[in-house]
């Protein structure tokens, strides 16, 4: 690394995320979600604060969506918070998980699962970063989600599966023209605010 420019050579992607089920039974909800999901195509490490998954983009999104969906299907109010990244040094090419094919192992289970998501895309080192961000906000509108600009993020509301597809598309498309990309996503399901139709918590 020279001049503090972050220029990774590996295309390994990753996400560090936490799920927070709003129930006394949170340990069970988290551990069952982690256990039920097929994680065999990603490197995975869980600790007391978060879980990190690394591998091909398709599998990083497959696993994060599946873990969120398993937790949400319990009906409890669940909050997900994650940082996706690609192109940072330290993520080495040698990882065996990059040899996997792109076939996803988890089928979407959260049908009719409403969710709200605040996401922010950071195409690092790009002079035209605002254009790249705006392109993906426009693309999100094409999926039929409700899309709303808010301070420091964009809010998406709709089917959880459509939200994760939109996030994956935004991340995938941006990294095709930008070495290092970071994207944050905070997602909420089964919020009491949603039932009241307030949709703003
Ligand atoms: C995805 C995800 N991974 C790890 C944690 C941290 N965490 C909090 S409680 C608990 C179970 C008992 O150890 C764990 C692992 C989280 N919240 N979400």
From TrEMBL:
Domain of life: Bacteria
Binding site for thiamine: 19, 51
Ranges in coiled-coil conformation: none
InterPro entries noted in UniProt: HMP/thiamine-bd, MTH1187/YkoF-like, Thiamin/HMP-bd_put_YkoF
Sequence ranges assigned to domain Thiamin/hydroxymethyl pyrimidine-binding YkoF putative in this UniProt record: 12-91, 115-193
GO molecular function, one term: thiamine binding
Protein name listed in UniProt: YKOF-related Family
Protein source organism: Thalassobacillus cyri
Biological classification of the source: Bacteria, Bacillati, Bacillota, Bacilli, Bacillales
